[in-house]
Every structure is written in C-alpha cells, then in structure tokens.
Amino acid sequence: FTEEASKFFASEVLLALEYLHMLGIVYRDLKPENVLVRDDGHIMLSDFDLSLRCSVSPTLVKSSSVHGGGGGGSSRPVGLIDEESAVQGCTQPSAFFPRILQSAKKNRKAKSDFGLFVNGSMPELMAEPTNVKSMSFVGTHEYLAPEIIRGEGHGSAVDWWTFGIFIYEL
C-alpha cells in the first residue's frame, strides 16, 4: 500500500474500533485477514466470533485543551456542555450527541439553543468499555496483547494493542 492508502485504512479501522467500543463490543481479533475492503474502497470488519459484548454508558469527559479566547479571561475547556444552560430532561449522552427528550415536537429547539455547544465545539464523550475484565485466552497468537498472555484479564485495551500491530503491518 502507499502511505496515503495506509493512513486511510488505518483511520477507517480506528473509527470502526471506536464505534464498536461505543456499542460495548470488544473486538479481540483485529488482523489484516479480518479487514475487508468494500467495492467503494471503504473497509468492513469481519469475524466477530471472538468479540465480547459488554455494557457501556457514554460519559462526558473534560477536555484537556483550554480555549484561550481574545483576552477576555474565560478559560472554559473546549468541548464541554455549558452546565448553567443545560436542558432539563437531558439523559445519558449517546454516542454522537446528547439526547434531548421533549414531549411535544413543537417545543423543540435546535441543539445549539440549549447551550450544548460551547465556543462552536461539540461535547467530548467517552464510551470505552474499560471496566471489562475477561479472563478468556482468545485471539490470534501473533496479535495477542500482553495482558491476555499473562492471564490477568483484559478489556478494550487489547483492541488498541492489535491496532498498533495492524498499523505496523500496513
């Protein structure tokens, strides 16, 4: 593959793993043989027989970057929901946007009217099944993460280990 193609495929696999983790799925078998290229050039993951389904709730995380602004002195972290103007009835954030529950459709406002976006940024959400500890010894031997080999229990971090190997092999 060219460097550009490798970057493209790596970014698509990264997004696929991120999406699976948001759904509470630890893939556990990432390897080139399980990454299929569709007719349109995008990738698709296959072979979910070793994957682990777990519960996960997306949570709002604080951004480490601070918006400097134009000397106004406001050092509000970028990507946070403005808590003073957050809407009553917001539930746990979904994978992409915080859900807003409204009983009447006519009272619905645009998301930006509720203060969900601060300084033009979207809130940062994390939906990573990090508390999962599976004790099973699964995966392709060449791609096993150290915690699987040691038998200490593993979670979604094993997907990021195999992702590193996948990038190296590209």
UniProtKB/TrEMBL annotation:
Gene3D superfamilies according to UniProt: Transferase(Phosphotransferase) domain 1
Q: Print the keywords alphabetically.
A: ATP-binding, Kinase, Nucleotide-binding, Serine/threonine-protein kinase, Transferase
Pfam family name, one: Pkinase
The organism sits in which domain of life? Eukaryota
| Catalysed transformations (reactions) | L-seryl-[protein] + ATP = O-phospho-L-seryl-[protein] + ADP + H(+); L-threonyl-[protein] + ATP = O-phospho-L-threonyl-[protein] + ADP + H(+)
Could you list the residue ranges that cross the membrane? none
Q: What is its EC number?
A: 2.7.11.1
Q: Which residues form a coiled coil?
A: none
Q: Where is the signal peptide?
A: none
Top EC class of this enzyme: transferase
Q: Which residues form the Protein kinase domain?
A: 1-170
In the record, what terms sit under GO molecular function?
A: ATP binding; protein serine/threonine kinase activity
Query: What protein family is recorded?
Result: Belongs to the protein kinase superfamily. AGC Ser/Thr protein kinase family.
Q: What is this protein called?
A: non-specific serine/threonine protein kinase
